[in-house]
Amino acid sequence: MVDLLGKMKQMDRMWDLVHELRSEGLVTLETIAKIMRRLAGAGRWKDAVKLFEDLETMGFDQDTRSMNIFLDTLCKEKRVDVAREAFLVLKSHIPPDAFTFNIFVHGWCSACRIDEAMWTIEEMKKWGLRPSVITYSTILQAYCNQHKFQEVYDLLDRMVAEGCLPNVVTYTTIMNSFANTGKLEEALGIVKRMKSSGCKLDILFYNSLINILGKAGRLHEAAHIFDIDMQRNGIRRNLSTYNTMISIFCHQCQEQNALNVLKEMENLSCEPDLQTYRPLLKLCFKLRQRDDHIHSLLSDMINKHHLSLDLDTYTLLIHGLCSVGNIEWACLLFDEMIGREIQPRNRTCKLLMDEAGQKNMEAAVERIKTVMKRIDHTP
């Protein structure tokens, strides 16, 4: 309740509630953290500073834990400079720990000031604290975001030299960053580096690698990892693995292979979700398949797996049906989503209204116009 009132910028009511909680001895340090975060989020960071200064009057110590909460609040609200000024004062009587410096590393990186983050690591070492893989991975992510890949390699070498070995999350982050910028070979080079380092692979790494290879059209390699490598390394596929593989096959118009994956996951009691079926439905429209095939997929979704269609799925179906000229069915789905109080996107309304107008479906056009007016007046 404190958090929600602060989020709604109802600060007076938030403070009334806090005072009530204090009278009953229910205020915790977590409560203080929520108050600080909402004050800073409302631009009242000076009030957040004052709250920390008055912490002892509320029965809490100004210690390392409370200082970290205070600094983390300021950094997450993009007030890292203010947090730094406060720390320069506080460090004389409150000893920092590794988490203190990790907060600043994350804050500087979020502000795209990686040099300050690197300097923070040196300061950390002067306090006798050792940077962790999380510390370095935060900076690596920032370098990746700025496409500074030579710095990525240099920092990886530095980590190894210092005995702080990158973990699977570090490598997966870098691999995805290379792939997202079109550097496929560099991404696969990271995979080789990762395996040669003896780093233990996990499901998130494999899911990412399958997706990268699939998007690059290297379907055979993706399928080999899916069918053989994961099992060989004792990694059990999850829903995301199956969804990724189905999406890849659908993107390459290999419907039967995608359906085979769906059948396999069902046999292994891995329940599909809407994300499983969307690529299959999209492929149906792309291949302009018969209505009964789409009906069959929808029947499995709703009756077999008890999935309830959401906005994205209704949108896909309505747009797909318009693309193949089945406006009547599209209008039925449109009416169905309205009946379920799912508000359609404006572009969906415009598309369906245009298509219905061309087929002289005047009643449908009027219904869509009514919905659009209601959407326009929704605050």
UniProtKB/TrEMBL annotation:
PPR repeats lie at residues 97-131, 132-166, 167-201, 202-237, 238-272, 310-344. InterPro entries: PPR_rpt, TPR-like_helical_dom_sf. The keyword Repeat applies. The keyword Repeat applies. Keywords: Repeat. Gene3D superfamilies: Tetratricopeptide repeat domain. Pfam families: PPR, PPR_1, PPR_2. It comes from the Eukaryota. Belongs to the PPR family. P subfamily. PANTHER family: OS03G0856100 PROTEIN, PENTACOTRIPEPTIDE-REPEAT REGION OF PRORP DOMAIN-CONTAINING PROTEIN. NCBIfam families: PPR (TIGR00756). This is Putative Pentatricopeptide repeat-containing protein, mitochondrial. It comes from Cocos nucifera (Coconut palm).
